[in-house]
Amino acid sequence: MRDINLATGTTTGVYYVLGNGMAQTWNNKVPNIRASAQATEASVQNMNLLQRKETHIGMSMNQVVGNAYNGRDKFEGRANKDLRVMTAMYPNVVQIVVSAKSGIKSVQDLKGKRFVPGAAGSGTETSAREILKVHGIDYNADKNVMKVDFVGFTEAVELIKNGQTDGALISAGVPNAAIMDLTNSSDVKLLSLSPDMVEKIVKEMPWYYPTTIPAGTYKGQTEPINTLAQANLLVTRADLDEELIYQLTRAIFENKADLVAAHSAAKDITLENALNGLMGVPLHPGAAKYFKEKGLNVPAN
Q1: In the chain, what are the domains?
Q2: Type and span of the H or E element at 115
Q3: pTM of the predicted model, to two decimals?
Q4: What is the DSSP letter of 186?
Q5: Residue 210 and residue 194 in contact, taking contact as beta carbons nearer than 8 Å
Q6: What pLDDT digit, counting tens, does each position of 111-153 carry?
Q7: Chain CA centroid to CA 42, Å
Q8: For burial by CB atoms within 10 Å, which of 28, 49, 195, 245 has the most?
């Protein structure tokens, strides 16, 4: 019996819920393995766990995977060339939610406010740092530009409910359970990004792409929200057996209904999207074998 550990995210996030469903599917459909989902602080921590060989597979936003592979940002000086992608999953959508009584109407209005950019070391915090910096808000360089609390989605929602922060950036699948809870119980609004900022961010950081949160996704959201998204990747290590990764990859796509039952974000795990946003990180040979069987144009490693 082979133990397989899947590093996911915080217990209330999509990663963790979907990861549990994925682990259960693997247990049911792939012989001779015992898979489990491990709660983590998500993207950055998962890449660190893979580098230390403390997990077998991890979920991560694509720009964090690219940074880990190339030794950039939080991975400066320790590029991990042993990372291998299994598949792209669903898109992570940037969702900036603020208290209605805060008076915040745009991203620029966040200056001088209290804000949650995400948990320390998370992919969400990386996204917040990147997107706010383009808007002239660099909370790392200027400690006075805003008061930040580095906490996860659930804690961020509680801070907003209790009036202890003005807003939060949540990068996750849509709809997000934490935001649904917040919109059902508090007077809040989601911020749209301006078209010129969307264009600027996509040009400077091509791991993002424009997307829209349809009106009515959340309670009280009467208009569509213009924002950004990026691919979530399922990532493993080069030393894992080709046949094992082939079987695990096949089980994902051939039992998608089970994953959708675990979380609706899994509906976007499709063969058409499987090779999106790989950031130049090679596919694992086992995953490449499956996709070639399905007729996909697999990039050369």
Answers
A1: 2-91+232-293 (3.40.190.10), 92-230 (3.40.190.10)
A2: strand 114-116
A3: 0.77
A4: S
A5: no
A6: 999 999 999 878 899 899 999 999 999 999 998 999 999 999 9
A7: 8
A8: 245
- Report residue 44 as tokens: 């950055």
* CB 217, CB 174: distance < 8 Å: yes
Give the type of residue at 235: V
The one-letter amino acid at 103:
G
For the segment 238-297, what is each residue's pLDDT rounded down to a tens digit?
Answer: 999 999 999 999 999 999 999 999 998 899 999 998 998 899 999 999 999 999 999 999
Q: Return the structure tokens found at 283.
A: 């596919």
In 3D space, the residue among 192, 238, 197 whose CA is nearest the CA of residue 85 turns out to be: 238
How far apart (Å, rounded) are the C-alpha atoms in residues 231 and 229? Answer: 7
Structure tokens at 37: 């989902």
Nearest-5° Cα angle at 239, 238 to 245: 75
CA dihedral 208, 213, 214, 218 (to 10 degrees): 170
Q: Residue 2 belongs to what H/E stretch?
A: strand 2-7
